[in-house]
Amino acid sequence: MTNKTLTLTDNQTGKTAELDLLEGTHGPGCISLKNIYKDTGYFTYDPGYSMTGSCKSGITFINGEEGILLHRGYPIDQLAEKSSYLEVCYLLLYGELPDKTQFDHFSDTIKMHTMVHENIRDFISGFRYDAHPMAMLVGTVGALSSFYHDSLDINDPKHREISAHRLIAKLPTIASYCYRHHRGLPFMYPDNNLSYVENFLQLMFAVPAQSYQQNPVAAKALEVMLILHADHEQNASTSTVRLAGSSGANPFASIAAGVASLWGPAHGGANEAVINMLEAIEQSGETIETTIARAKDKNDPFRLMGFGHRVYKNFDPRAKIIAKLCHELLDELDGDQPLFKLARELEEATLADEYFQERRLYPNVDFYSGIILRALDIPMNMFTVMFAMARTVGWISHWSEMHSDPEYRIGRPRQIYTGHAKRDYPG
Ligand code: SDX
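A: This is the predicted complex of the input protein with s-citryldethia Coenzyme A.
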């Protein structure tokens, strides 16, 4: 809270209202609306909440104008270069980088939770063979609350902590089950002798008939991908987790709500949509020019997937890191160079196009991530599952932070009513 206030004056009545101004460590301050209805008789109107601060948070800071992303104060490029996904999980959850003892204990704890109840294998086997992996994931994450009755008290910090550990540890196992069910492959068990990422790769691609050869290039690329997707402030899915959790819903139900929100093509589903768009250009005779024209045509709902961002009106700092990673990986793995080349051409064409310049539409984190995931042999319908697996730590960190915030209340937005005026039932 600052000692500054903003005075609102109603020009019709001359009534004034004094609104407190709040300021944080970085970024724009907020006008406290706590008394606005009491003092003015008005709500505020902000469709999509693009100008609304929904909470106070110390986890992630984004500066959209300057393309800055910090996790607990550390710049994303430094974390991507020097940290590991599990260390970033610790940082997001606990607020500080761990020392060796703390990291080893955290890593061992996560390893103790990598397996899932055997019934979950049957649960996932009950889905149709062609069920979308995101449909399986959203159902299975919600169903986890039916297995862990011992840790659902949201007011118990120990319950909150073990639920966070369980989710971080089990998402790779569950994600791999969704993939393997879809492919008719036997489920693999976690291998706690491996790192978090290596374990995921063997869960996904090992076959019981032979030993699995790790690919260090793929493991490193995936490590960076997970770090870049771990958290991103109050995005749609994180805000969904907070809103669902604000009613007292258990952690697994709240995270399942976040998985559901991430699925949309305007959010986490964009990485899959980018590849569909690039392949459409490649295979359907669409050109970059016709694709860009469609994206600009107001009568066409088509958007250029992988471009634009609600906050970044400059380059998404993650996109820069991912583009470089993509280039290196495709050289190493002789990946889908034509698709990457096409992506580069599309990026260059949009950067030179006035429509995109005026609206400051740049490639976002999803633009290149799909190409990397393909290079890692991750099938397209698993792209958003990968995003959900990475983002689970961000979701559960925000969920936990909310429950530790003395100011948190159940989320309950208001509206501007535009329906019928009051009327009587006929007759
Ligand atoms: C993620 O919030 C996060 O942090 C999300 C995320 C995270 O880590 O959690 O960063 C991950 O979701 C990244 C975004 C992935 N989505 C896409 O790539 C889908 C394509 N992008 C668009 O759907 C769009 O850019 C959004 C949804 C990302 C942002 O939408 P906004 O902020 O509501 O933008 P807008 O609709 O206000 O657009 C402003 C203008 C409009 O034109 P005008 O009405 O001014 O003439 O820009 C245009 C839009 O039509 N526009 C686009 C466009 N995105 C915006 N035009 C063509 N192609 C696009 N991609």
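The longest helix spans residues 157-183. Strands lie at 5-9, 16-22, 30-31, 60-63, 68-71, 74-75.
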